[in-house]
Design a protein that fits this description.
single chain, alpha+beta, 7-stranded mixed beta sheet, 7-stranded antiparallel beta sheet, 26% strand, elongated, binds flavin-adenine dinucleotide
Length: 392
């Protein structure tokens, strides 16, 4: 049986950040993981370049039953603090659209930085360790693993969400929360492509490969980014973003031409008594295959001069408010995150400690705080891990 101060379950973004901070305070820390290497998700993130944070971080970029919960952590360990670490390690990075920061070379450099900080802080990372049981004991917690038992005063759950089980994601964190009587907000797959009902799939599969800048909305939320038609459904950043808000059975609204007013454009052609066919006019703005899939061929063959105002509104509506009801999403197999998780009402926003169970902490994606696409999820992992690391 091994005695230590802090046991962290999950040796990836949030777990290692917490472990580093606790180690720096002189705490004896062990980070356990069932994987054969640490930080697997970091390594595959951002197409291998890790979009490690964003220049513009605010609570509005996160989904949570309590939208204020994340604010405290971001104010104490911000994107600038993480950028400072990256610069200290001379990791070259660059900015892409929407303030997203990526490594110039490889995500591996972020993993190496965390491991190096762990080494300096005396953190022991123990891989290939299966967690068999977790229980509370008089002075902390007992964790039973395939490699023996450990006792620790503090227990940090940093086991992430359940997206991409192939990468080692498991519901362990939710199970531990439930075991200790903590509420878990229903998890679901986020940042994930949509699948379509058979009739829509047949209609839109031929558009596979078309990408266009659009505005997609669900209820009050909208995103202006690329949409990508795939042979399975709808993807691209705008669709991934909205998937975290979407609810099964509901309709998405897509403005396929957000920069122009089609009604006005068609009206101008009509005023000029233009003999141009509608399909010719639309083809100046959108791919022909898309136009044919969305608008009745009889309307497309009309001339602008002959178009009634009702038909004009109908065409503009099909383009500016294309309504599509997905069949579902690709699910956890390809989702970049899990929305939902340990209810923030159960945790202190300052320490990430459970209100009910002294010494039990939850950090990172396992908590009901989910970021948008764009480096927001890692920043939550760094900030929440850092905060817990000050108290464990
Ligand atoms: C393909 C992909 C690309 C992404 N790209 C980005 C990006 O560029 N930018 C961004 O901000 N976010 C990105 N994300 C999201 C980001 O990776 C996660 O939000 C982040 O890794 C969460 O950190 P975490 O430490 O909380 O959990 P994780 O990184 O998921 O770590 C959890 C750890 O716990 C371990 N574990 C799980 N279950 C058990 C168990 N039963 N026993 C022992 N150990 C266990 C896992 O092996 C893992 O090491 C991406 C996600 C995916 C899937």
């Amino acid at each position: 049986m091994m005695q230590t101060d802090v046991i962290v379950i999950g040796a990836s973004a949030s777990g290692l950040m917490c472990a580093i901070e606790a180690g720096k305070r002189g705490r004896r820390v062990i980070a356990l993981d069932h994987a054969n290497k640490s930080c697997k998700k970091i390594l595959i993130s951002g197409g291998g370049r890790c979009n490690f944070t964003n220049l513009d971080i605010s609570a509005e970029n996160y989904i949570s039953h309590n939208p204020h919960f994340c604010k405290s952590a971001f104010s104490r360990f911000s994107q600038w603090d993480f950028i400072g670490m990256v610069e200290k390690y001379q990791i070259a990075y660059h900015e892409r659209d929407h303030g997203q920061l990526f490594c110039d070379e490889s995500a591996k450099l972020i993993r190496d930085m965390l491991e190096s900080e762990c080494e300096k802080a005396g953190v022991h990372i123990q891989l290939e360790t299966e967690i068999i049981q977790v229980s509370q004991i008089p002075l902390g917690f007992e964790v039973t693993t395939n490699r023996g038992k450990l006792h620790g005063e503090s227990l940090v759950i940093a086991s992430g969400g359940i997206s991409i089980p192939k990468m080692g994601a498991t519901p362990l964190g939710y199970k531990i929360a439930e075991q200790f009587g903590l509420n878990v907000c229903q998890p679901f797959a986020g940042l994930v492509p949509f699948t379509l009902h058979d009739h829509d799939k047949a209609r839109f599969a031929p558009l596979s490969g078309i990408a266009l800048d659009c505005e997609v909305s669900f209820r009050q939320q909208s995103f202006r980014e690329n949409l990508l038609f795939t042979h399975r459904g709808l993807s691209g950043p705008s669709m991934l973003q909205i998937s975290s808000y979407w609810r099964a059975g509901e309709t998405l609204h897509v403005n396929l031409l957000p920069d122009i007013d089609l009604n006005q454009v068609l009206d101008q052609y009509k005023q000029q008594s233009s003999r141009l066919q509608i399909k010719t006019i639309l083809a100046q703005h959108l791919p022909k295959r898309l136009i044919v899939a969305l608008i009745d061929v009889k309307l497309l063959e009309q001339t602008a001069a002959n178009l009634s105002s009702q038909q004009r509104l109908q065409i503009a509506g099909s383009i500016h408010d294309w309504q599509i009801k997905p069949n579902g999403t690709e699910g956890y197999r390809t989702a970049e995150v899990t929305v939902g998780g340990v209810d923030t009402n159960e945790l202190s926003s300052k320490t990430m400690q459970s209100h009910k169970i002294n010494g039990l902490y939850f950090v990172g994606e396992v908590v009901d705080v989910t970021g948008w696409l764009g480096g927001y999820n890692f920043q939550w992992a760094w900030s929440s891990g850092w905060c817990a690391g000050q108290y464990v």
